[in-house]
Amino acid sequence: MNDCPNADVRDLLPDLLHDRLDKATRAMVESHVEGCADCRAELALLRDVRASLRYSPALNIAAITAAVPSYRAPVRRSWVGWRTAASVTLLLAGGSSLVVMQRVGSHSVDSAAVVAATDRAVLAEPQIAHGTESTTVAVAPQSVEPSAPRVARQPVAENPMPDVRVSDRRELALAGGSLTDLSERELSSLLKDIESLDALPSTDVESVSISPIAPSAPPRGRP
Amino acid sequence: MRDVAEGADELTDLDLITRWKGGDQRAATLLVERHAGAVARFASSVGAKGDVQDVVQDTFVRAFGSLDSFRGDSSLRTWLFTIARRLLLDLRRSERRRGEQVEVQENDASTEYDSLDSVVAEETRKRMHAAVARLSKTQREVFLLRVNEGLSYKEIADVAGTTEGAARVHYHNAMRGIKEFLDE
Fold first, then answer.
1. Is some CB atom of chain B closer than 8 A to the CB atom of A14?
2. Which residues does chain B have within 8 Å of residue A69's beta carbon, measured at their own beta carbons?
3. Is the pLDDT of residue B38 over 50?
4. With a threshold of 0.90, does the pTM exceed it?
5. Contacts of A186 (CB under 8 A, 6+ apart)
6. What are the residues whose beta carbons fall under 8 Å from the beta carbon of B6, sequence distance 6 or more?
7. CA distances in angstroms from A124 to A114, A129, A187, A191, A192, listed in the order given
């Protein structure tokens, strides 16, 4: 049995068998098959295959239909419900963030105060810190202006201040870490300040512990 | 509503699906009656043996359970073939894990096709069975979908998870193999 060289028509023979061709294509294929012995033989073969293998197996249709479930519409998700839930979540998250930020803000003030006090203690060490045991630094949040340490920690070189007061220059020198930048008058003023301190913190920064005190009990020696 | 049994032949598959969704269980029965035979033939062609009834039943249960996902891009029958094919693959995988024999033997085909058209001569039937049984699994699947069910190459590609071009090649190779066998 030979193959017809017209592959397009051969491709359409099963469709002719199943009557799946439109009118024009069907007419064209039938016309070709009429004059082509190879295609007639192939079409006959296809009919034989179909007749031989198109058996009808015994099926229990009733059992199959009994197993088919009744229709259940899919549960529609309520977008209103989702939006409400999302809104509540956002509000809760936002509120929580605000609370956390406020707490962090107050804590940073405390930390700033401690840093300022520690800086002073480091400066004071060569003069008076010997023999001092581990000391608790008691800092009341209200007793320290948070702006001072923040100014002191800004980079000096990038933003030089043309008119700097003595106390500010001292803070800037501390931030830069060099006492040589201070004049003799400023140094003596600083020493006086240190001597006026009646609570001397430990020079060991690592061992400093923080215990904020209640506003009703300000640190000793401070108004 | 008009009784679904009246003029059921004119109702398309989509019409029947709509009626079934509207609570008409008779529409489901008509769909099963319309396609169960083809699904059984297809299942047999891809290796179902004594479990054809189970495969066909599971196919319809799954299909009706997810008819909302059927968009009508392909025919319902093609979609059912796809489901049946997946079920059989899963079944064969689990059988393989249990170490059971899964290959379709040549004589299985003969026992599967006991129910014959009485017009076809016994000798021709045997030769056709033998010719088809010689084909590779993929060639047999593609060839029978094309010749027995009249699916297009595109539909065959959807069912068999291959490309249209590959389906065409498998079909023509199968046809060449059958002709060679019959010419021997």
1. yes
2. 61, 64-65
3. yes
4. no
5. A166, A169, A170, A173
6. none
7. 15, 7, 12, 8, 11
Q: Distance between CA A7 and CA A2 in Å, rounded?
A: 12
Indicate the pLDDT class of residue A133, thresholds 50, 70 and 90: very low
User: Is the predicted pLDDT of residue A25 greater than 70, yes or no?
Assistant: yes
Provide the number of CB pairs (under 8 Å) joining chain A to chain B: 122
**What's the pLDDT at B115?**
46
Contact A49 B182 (CB under 8 A): no
The minimal CB distance from A14 to the residues B115, B150, B178 is found for B150
Of B3, B24, B20, nearest in space to B68 by CA: B20
B106-134 pLDDT, tens digit per residue, is 334 434 444 444 544 677 788 888 999 89
- To test the contact with chain A by mutation, choose from B49, B57, B169 the residue with the greatest count of A C-beta atoms within 10 A, namely B57
Distance from CA of A73 to the nearest CA of B (A): 8
Residues 19-38 of A with CB under 8 A from B: 20
User: Residue A57 and residue B41: Cβ atoms within 8 Å?
Assistant: yes
More confident of the two residues B87 and A203: B87
Among B135, B144, B82, CA closest to A53: B144
Structure-token match 């249990």, residue found? B98
**Gap between the terminal Cα atoms of chain A:** 117
Q: How many Å apart are CA B73 and CA A36, to the nearest integer?
A: 36
Q: Write out chain B residues lying below 8 Å of A54, CB-based.
A: 41, 117, 148
This complex has an ipTM of 0.75
pLDDT in tens, A37-60: 999 999 999 998 888 887 767 889
Q: Which residues of A fall within a CB distance of 8 Å from B148? A: 49-50, 53-54
B139 CB-near residues (< 8 Å, 6+ apart): B170, B171, B173, B174, B177
At residue B27, the pLDDT reads 93
Given a cut of 50, whether residue B105 has pLDDT beyond it is no
